[in-house]
Amino acid sequence: MTQTIAPQLDIERIRADFPILQQQVNGYPLAYLDSTASSQKPAVVIEAMDRYYRRYNANVHRGVYQLSEQATEAMEQARSKVARFIGAKSAREIIFTRNTTESINLVANAWGRSNLKHGDRILVTEMEHHSNLVPWQIIADATGAELDFMPIDGSGRLALDELPRLLSEQTKLVAVTQMSNVLGTINPVKAITVEAKKVGALVLVDGAQSVPHFAVDVRDLDIDFLAFSGHKMCGPTGIGVLWGRKEILQAMPPFLAGGSMIRQVGLRRSTWNDLPHKFEAGTPAIAEAIGLGCAVDYLSAVGMDAIHAAEQQLTTYALEQLAGIDGLTLYGPPVAERGGVISFNLDDVHPHDVAAVLDRHGVAVRAGHHCCQPLMEIFNAPATARASFYLYTTQAEIDQLVSGLEKCKEIFR
Ligand code: 7TS
């Protein structure tokens, strides 16, 4: 039975949109609790991509023939949809990349190499995914800039009172995740941005976990860059987004070079195309962009506020149920400050064993360091198991998780 505690969402109807959810795993209904790693895709997204390949597959921005014009129009419509979805001023500010990781690497290389110098500082947090940490380490090494770290407290909240001490005239960029993929913590990006602007620093937000789960408006947040991935928001893999303020993107040199990103090429020198093409070298992920546009339509029709509210209710329920399991350690802040991601450990059972037993009960969770090794070190846990929720998650799936964990305790007692 797929009952829900979230009256905002017609969960039966939503689940019917996701073909993959209608299956059994190891004799149990699939309880897919790993949307933080990658979300499932509604049929409309799969069909939109299928339609492109069957009916109007052609390269974009070059052919004057009908198929190419159709493909170009579909891809540019997708760009406009994404722009509206995050409140961007213009679709030209939407750069299609492969994923969040590539979006952040684009900024680190194109903006970082031309704006950072010896003595400059980049402020990140201790809870960043490796993709919002390692690119800054590399760019700091290359430019002589240095990294500072916003610490977190025992329940996984950023220590905001440390901000004034950490920010100075030397701080050129603050790079922060809007929601932790391990702790679920939702960070107060707006308040951080207010402080960053006082010292003239730019703000890059890792929206990999926020954009899929609640309404994010780049103008309301007053940030400078936003990075996110299509595959975590009901879209396909292979497509991600970098949003940046137009003036900043215009002043940045290109990242990748080759076809499409040029205006004029000579044997020794070239000039660059307008935004967004300056940052989209080579043939783009056309079907994937179209799929992402369709995913944005899908999420908008359901409603981002309703999705967020439903996830909060599920998380409240899950935290209550999990708290009743003896020997279970839960990580992260109270529900009011978090999204639908719950990391845990069960006694001294290795999280990979926990995940393997859960899999036998049809429950898919991730175990490991979740690409956040510095964060795991702070919590003194080399790994955790992690359950995460999305718009198609039901209360019954959380019950299935809880009974799987009880089984796990029996096995490892
Ligand atoms: N930033 C955050 C906060 C993330 O959660 C992830 C992926 C990324 C960046 C990178 O996204 P990508 O699409 O470029 O790979 N997080 C996870 C995860 O928690 N489990 O698998 C991927």
Give the gist of this structure:
The protein is α/β, with parallel strands linked by helices and about 425 residues long. The protein contains 14 helices and 17 strands. The relative contact order is 0.17.
Produce the secondary structure layout.
Layout: H1 11-16, E1 24-25, E2 28-29, E3 31-32, H2 43-55, H3 66-85, E4 94-97, H4 100-115, E5 121-125, H5 134-143, E6 146-150, H6 163-166, E7 171-177, H7 189-198, E8 202-206, H8 218-221, E9 225-229, E10 240-244, H9 246-251, E11 262-265, E12 270-272, H10 286-302, H11 304-323, E13 328-330, E14 341-346, H12 351-360, E15 363-364, E16 366-368, H13 373-378, E17 384-388, H14 395-412
Parallel strand pairs: 3-15, 5-6, 5-7, 7-8, 8-9
Antiparallel strand pairs: 1-2, 4-10, 9-10, 11-12, 13-14, 14-17, 16-17
Bound molecules: ligand 7TS.
Ligand 7TS binds at residues 36-37, 99-101, 129, 131-132, 177, 181, 206, 208-209, 229, 366, 370-371.
Structure commentary:
With 413 residues, this protein is α/β, with parallel strands linked by helices. The protein folds into two domains: 132 residues, Aspartate Aminotransferase, domain 1, CATH 3.90.1150.10; 255 residues, Aspartate Aminotransferase, domain 2. Helices cover 39% and strands 16% of the residues. The chain contains 14 helices and 17 strands. It has a seven-stranded mixed sheet, sandwiched between helices. The chain binds ligand 7TS.
What spatial form do the alpha-carbon principal axes imply? globular
**Gap from first CA to last CA:** 30 Å
Largest sheet: 7 strands, mixed
DSSP, total strands: 17
CATH fold type of the largest domain:
Aspartate Aminotransferase, domain 2
* CATH level-two architecture of the largest domain: 3-Layer(aba) Sandwich
Low-confidence stretches: none
Helical proportion, percent range? 25-40%
Q: Give, in spatial order, the strands making up the sheet with the most strands.
A: 4-10-9-8-7-5-6
C-alpha-based Rg, rounded: 22 Å
The CATH C-level class name of the largest domain:
Alpha Beta
Q: What structural category characterises the helix and strand content? A: alpha/beta
Small molecules bound in the structure, each named once: ligand 7TS
The average pLDDT score comes to 96
CATH superfamily of the largest domain: Type I PLP-dependent aspartate aminotransferase-like (Major domain)
Number of helices: 14
Strand content: 15-25%
* Tally of discrete structural domains: 2
